[in-house]
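Quick illustration for those who missed Monday's session on complexes.
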Amino acid sequence: MLSPLFHRPRFLIAAAVAAVILAVAVGVYVGRRQTTTQTIAFSEFLQYAKTGQIARVAFADRTIDLALRDGRTLKTVPPPEFLTANAPFYTELADRGVRIEVQPAPEPGALSLSALALAGGFLALLGFTVYRTTAGRIHTPGRAKIAERGDHVVTFQDVAGVDEAKDEVKEIVDFLKEPERYSAIGGRIPKGVLLIGPPGTGKTLLARSIAGEAGVPFLFASGSDFVEMYAGVGAARVRRLFKDARRHKSCIVFIDELDAVGRSRGGSSLSHEEREQTLNQLLVEMDGFEATLGIVVIAATNRPDILDPALLRPGRFDRQVMVGNPDLRGREAILRVHARKVALESEANLRSIARGTPGFSGADLANLVNEAALLAARAGRSEITHRDMESSRDKVLMGVERRSLTLSELDRVNCAYHEAGHAVVAALLPSADPLHKVTIVPRGRAMGVTMQLPEADRHTYTKGYLDTQIAVLMGGRVAEELFMHHMTSGASNDIERATDIAQHMVCEWGMSSLGMRAFRKAGNSFGDDKPHAISEATARRVDEEIEKILNGGYDRARDLLDRNREAVKALAEALLEQEALEADEIKTLLAQANAQA
Ligand code: ADP
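Prediction with adenosine-5'-diphosphate bound:
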């Protein structure tokens, strides 16, 4: 794992100072208590006065200190009124040759030495605590974390599904291994590599694997570490990072979330100023080291569009590598990488799991394998089964089952017909994605789920496919109307998704009679109302087209379900009995219902 390098001498000094002050304060206090003279009864004092044994008296605020002629010093506490109303007594003392001193009363609020020392100690302690909580955030620039020797070394074997990106960075490994070979012929290796891609696609992993393959240290910092409200702190941290890097002959400096610090410059607020300083420092540092030095800076971002153009100039992050979500083969390979680390039964079909996880990132897949391992462990199995992997996938895709939620019988029946409606439309329309599972166990926020899985990853959608999607979404409400003779709010998410698809079809994808034009309603979203502002009349036509598509989907679903009432009934009843149905079971049920009809 990564370990921070904390060297905080100031931290120790502050602690030592606080301890010394406290010790002095306690010492003074205890010392004073110990030198306190013996206190005698007032009657004894009068006796000493009468017998002429007193050499000196000192009247303090409430006490009398006395020195006897034999050298002893004593103290007594007189009655309160004695000190004010006894003028003859003082004259008598003076006559006996006693030296009389009067000590002024301490001024109100004046602190004794020990109290001062105690207060000092307390303040030091307070300062020390404040220092501890703010240290590193204000005063000391943060340090990069570097991988330690004992850490698991990540290599290219641990990174799967991003072959193009791997090919692109292989050259850097060669350079880091033998920088001389490149510099001998005057070759200039890129100083900066920008990995671009959505979160969880393995950018950090790839950067670590480069360091692992080349056998060089890996210094890790996150862009957000440099973002501070105190001007200059971020820049100091960048300086520190590169100072650390220069200590090594060659190394990888990895900056995650580069966009946090590398946004386009401009603006006038204080935070802008701080960020600009930090960014400038980063540019200066990158220009400052020789390309032959053996330091390669790798940064990751998922927003290259907002980066300052200065960062992307030659000599800085001039090499850009895309790290996207994996395709089917990539997902299978990633599952295999993670399955190596756990005990997975040999019959598990990773290809089928990969097929059922379109759009999953590498991190999602790693999480899926881990969830499956937890499921198997909870069930007391020593191996992860294929079913564990499937349950884990369903959990990630559809949310956690909420078996504790008790539904009324009416809700259950309604839900069963609703899901059966979706399922039957999906099963009967050839261009719909194949059904994977239908369940009426509440999951996440849904009461029931009808899950379809595409045969292969989709990168574009045909109009036919989108129309079918809308019809499938309408199937739920249509079934409620046909079989339950009512409408419920359970269709709200279906309606929202269908409207969204129809809107895209008309406004962005040119799939309506309005033709190939982009429409965006004025004020649709912040800041982008200008380029495509449309007139009132056109807006009305857009709305009409959206409505037409939605109504078309509804009519199609209604027609289908009305003609296949037996199939819906059979599926709903099976759902009420079993709660969840897999693809094969649905197929058999529908075939039986068809045969009966
Ligand atoms: P990013 O930096 O792109 O946000 P990470 O590199 O931090 O993503 O990925 C998080 C975790 O997900 C990794 O530690 C790894 O376990 C897993 N992972 C992500 N992508 C891959 C991949 N391509 N191959 C193998 N594992 C991956």
